[in-house]
Amino acid sequence: MPRGEPFKIKMVEPIRLISREEREAAIRRAGYNVFALRSHEVYVDLLTDSGTGAMSQEQWAAMMRGDESYAGAASYYRLRDVVEEITGYPYVLPTHQGRGAEQVVLPNLVTRPGMYVLSNMFFDTTRAHVQLAGGRPVDLVTPEAMDTESEYPFKGNMDLDRLEAFIRDHGAEDIACIIMTVTNNSAGGQPVSMANIRATSEIARRHGIPLLFDAARYAENCWFVRQREPGYAGKSPLEIAREMFSYGDGLMMSAKKDGLVNIGGLAAFRDKELYEKACGRLVPYEGFLTYGGLAGRDMEAMAVGLREALDADYLAYRVGQVEYLGQLLRDGGVPIQWPVGGHAVFVDARKFLPHIPPEQFPGHALAIETYLEGGVRGVEVGSLMMGRDPATGRQLPSPFEFFRLAIPRRVYTSRHLEDVADTLIRVYRRRERVRGVRFTYEPKVLRHFTARFEFVE
Ligand code: PM9
Fold this sequence. Notes:
This protein is of the alpha/beta class. About 40% of the residues lie in helices and about 15% in strands. The termini are far apart.
């Protein structure tokens, strides 16, 4: 097998490492929040894999075909056909991004305040949309996910025993829906097995509860199923995707990940009823049914990107590159969620910085330190992102304290990732000198994006 990337580079964007003094000034000005850094102040930007990928020549070419008609655009129908081919869902709505789909779909299911929405694990915007709709999000990730060192191959799984018990204790009528997040971002980009999806679907159907996918990274999940689950090695990623979606009633998707586009999202359904309810919210919040907040050219790029993301050579390179960074870090002694996830390496900040308690956000402290050390930007996924209980104002307990290095698709070379690993290993060697942080400003909703901090002395 060749070891190189399955593409060559046709266009380049310069990047550079600014000086240590400039980095210190930049992070101070940013209120010690990496979200407030300007991109030119960052050398390797692993803040997110969302919308940061490089499009292919086929995607750029397809954009020229964009039909910008307000209603009935040909680009919409091309996108719809691809989504139906992959998912089997005929009712397709474009949205401006993943959270657009969430705001269009979730309030139709959370019909009474206090209803529960169950998930293997919510991403923060999905959790926020459940709460904004008056619902109560409940994470039911498998306990194996908590042990960051075990070899368990599907740490993204739903805990089926807790799912059954929750439905039995609270009653199916109080459960708005089940959301299966593939891959499970908050647990470390960890995959969900087909067996677990099938079993979750059986439970959902038995109780008459809708099962929706949060499909942001569904193609990477399909790759892990093919690699790790008996019986799938000979199947194409497309065949695996079709089987996976056959177990659900619909999806919400940020196409900025496995749609390989810089902007765009999707909602798609098996049945007309959920679709029609979503249409009622799409028009006032996103746009007309056949553009949903996107340009025709965006839908063209998405239609091509959705297919490219299921290409076996691409997926082998993609997941392999993330694993390469994980292996370099592990070899350097850095504790990470293992096995490595599909889109990011999740550094276990609890183990990395045992002297920093959760209320001083060890994952965020590591984000600041890694930026200062080598201009590398990653993000906290832990107590800071988890936030407070809206009813009591108390900090919600976070099962993890991660510092996430998310790898944009088709953007950085392995040499960049070697620089990232060297940077983090240098921080690890002087880890006892890293300090925790506290808020100087704490926003009420999705606080990690705009909060400001100072070091705890
Ligand atoms: N995920 C991420 O970096 C981007 C926003 S925070 C920097 O991981 C899942 C599983 C996601 C996700 C976004 C969304 C929302 C839904 N589900 O960002 O609205 O990981 O397109 O998608 C980010 P949008």
